[in-house]
Structure formats: C-alpha cells, structure tokens
C-alpha cells in the first residue's frame, strides 16, 4: 500500500509539472509551437503562412493563436472581412491574449471606427500589464486621430518608458505579482501531502533508502515548480515533517528502531533543502535554452 502511495504521488507531481509548471500563458505556448508559421508571416510570406495556419485551425479549432495569425495573413492577402472574422474568433477563444485585442483594435483603427478601436486598445493594455509597448503606441495613434493630443502624448511617453526598460532589463518588464499567488498556494497544498508521505515512509521503511528517495524526488519537484520560492516550500516541508512526526507519531520502543527513524527523519530534512535547490537550478537551466 505504501509503495502504491509513493507511485501515485510521483505521478501526481509529473502531471502537475507537465500541465502547470510552465510559467508561459496558453497563447505564448501556442505562438512558440507555431513559430514556423509566425516566421513566415513576419517575413511577408502571407500565402504560405495562410495555408500553414489554415491547417492549424483545422487541427486545433480552439487555438486563439491559430485563428489570430490566419486572420493576420488574410489581412496581408487583402481579405479584410475574413481577417476580421478570424481575429474576432481569436479574441473569443482567449480573452487574456493581449495581442488578439491589439490586432482587433488595429482593424477598427484602419476602418476609421475610432471609438471601437480605442476600447480594444484599452483591453489590450489591461491584459498586457505593461509587458509590451505596442498597445500604448496604437492607443496613442487612436487618440491622435480623435484630436486628444494630451492623452496621445502620455501614451507615447509610456511606450518609450516600457521600451527603455525592456532594453535595460533584456526582457519585457512585468508588473509586480503578489508573492502569495494561486500557484504558490497550490504548491503548498501539495507540500502538505508529500510531507505526510515522508512521515509515513519514515515510520514504515526498513532502511533509510526509501525515505531519502521520497524526500529527494519531492524536493526536486518543489524546486522545479517554484524555482524562486522553492526555499519557502522546502522549509515548509521540513517543518511539517518534523512537527507531524513528533506530534502525531509514537517513538519506537527499541534503540535500533529509534536510530533508524532518526537517520531517516533528519536525513530527509537535509536532503529536502539540497534537492529543492537542485530542482530550481534544473528549471532555470531549462528556461535558458
């Protein structure tokens, strides 16, 4: 039964890492996946890019980015009504994708529907959270056409600031996120379960190998999931393991039993810290590729 619990926990972590540990948004993942077609579009090869994204739309009818870029290629081919329909679909599929709102606004701007364009650019700015200067640039253009010079200049100043920050940081600046977010809370819940598992293994194992193995794998997963906050999760796991062991379990009656559990317990605590740093290092190394 204990072995089954260990396997189930590790498979749970694998599922978690596969589906939730990637910090990119859904649209960012899709854009990376469709990079050959995106490159065709950016190089002005609209016909090739259109057929590429037309195929992707059929393969993945729920993909915001597939519809968005098919719409952009339609625009490049001069098919504005079709472009409008595709980009509208892209917005409906992923309301969080600021680039879809931005391109939707640009269509309205080109059609001289300035108020609608302005509302789309406002949405793009809200969703982008200052990660891109483009929404401010285009909203500034809309303000200029509406003869709202002061607001336009404010947007152009913000565009310049974000661009300069991006150059100095090497990446697009992001607005500060709360330390205690949903991802960290979910990870803390997982840590409670892995801590209980470590305690059970310490109590049931006939050698130190299985407790050490469980502690190492769970801690590597901790560091991988939260490369910057893994130290907090590792500390939490150590506290929960030690507290749970001393408060809710009974000590073995024999000296050999106590020594085995002590070696298993304290060794697991030490390995938790070491392995969490290893997991964080692995995640950062993967992100650099």
TrEMBL record:
Regions crossing the membrane: 184-202, 208-225, 232-251, 263-282
Biased composition (Basic and acidic residues): 155-164
UniProtKB keywords: Membrane, Repeat, TPR repeat, Transmembrane, Transmembrane helix
TPR repeats: 98-131
The keyword Secreted appears for this protein: no
Compositional bias per record (Polar residues), positions renumbered to this chain: 165-174
Domain of life: Bacteria
Region Disordered: start-end pairs: 155-175
Protein name: Tetratricopeptide repeat protein
Native organism: Dyadobacter pollutisoli
Lineage, uppermost ranks: Bacteria, Pseudomonadati, Bacteroidota, Cytophagia, Cytophagales
């Amino acid at each position: 039964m204990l072995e089954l619990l260990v396997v189930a926990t590790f498979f749970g972590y694998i599922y978690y890492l596969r589906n939730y540990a990637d910090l990119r948004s859904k649209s960012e993942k899709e854009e990376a996946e469709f990079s050959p077609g995106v490159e065709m579009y950016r190089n002005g090869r609209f016909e090739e890019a259109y057929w590429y994204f037309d195929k992707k739309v059929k393969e993945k009818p729920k993909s915001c980015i597939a519809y968005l870029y098919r719409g952009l290629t339609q625009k490049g081919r001069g098919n504005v009504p079709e472009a409008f329909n595709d980009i509208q679909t892209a917005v409906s599929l992923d309301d969080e994708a600021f680039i879809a709102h931005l391109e939707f606004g640009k269509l309205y701007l080109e059609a001289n529907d300035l108020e609608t364009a302005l509302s789309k650019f406002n949405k793009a700015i809200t969703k982008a959270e200052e990660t891109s200067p483009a929404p401010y640039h285009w909203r500034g253009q809309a303000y200029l056409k509406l003869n709202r010079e002061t607001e336009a200049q404010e947007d152009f100043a913000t565009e310049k600031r974000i661009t300069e920050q991006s150059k100095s940081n090497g990446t697009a600046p992001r607005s500060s996120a709360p330390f205690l977010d949903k991802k960290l809370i979910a990870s803390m819940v997982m840590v409670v379960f892995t801590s209980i598992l470590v305690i059970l293994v310490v109590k049931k194992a006939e050698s130190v190998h299985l407790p050490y193995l469980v502690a190492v794998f769970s801690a590597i997963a901790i560091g991988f999931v939260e490369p910057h906050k893994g130290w907090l999760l590792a500390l939490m796991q150590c506290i929960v393991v030690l507290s749970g062991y001393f408060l809710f379990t009974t000590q073995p009656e024999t000296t050999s039993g106590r020594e085995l559990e002590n070696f298993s317990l304290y060794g697991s605590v030490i390995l938790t810290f070491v392995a969490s740093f290893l997991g964080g290092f692995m995640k950062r190394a993967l992100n650099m590729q």
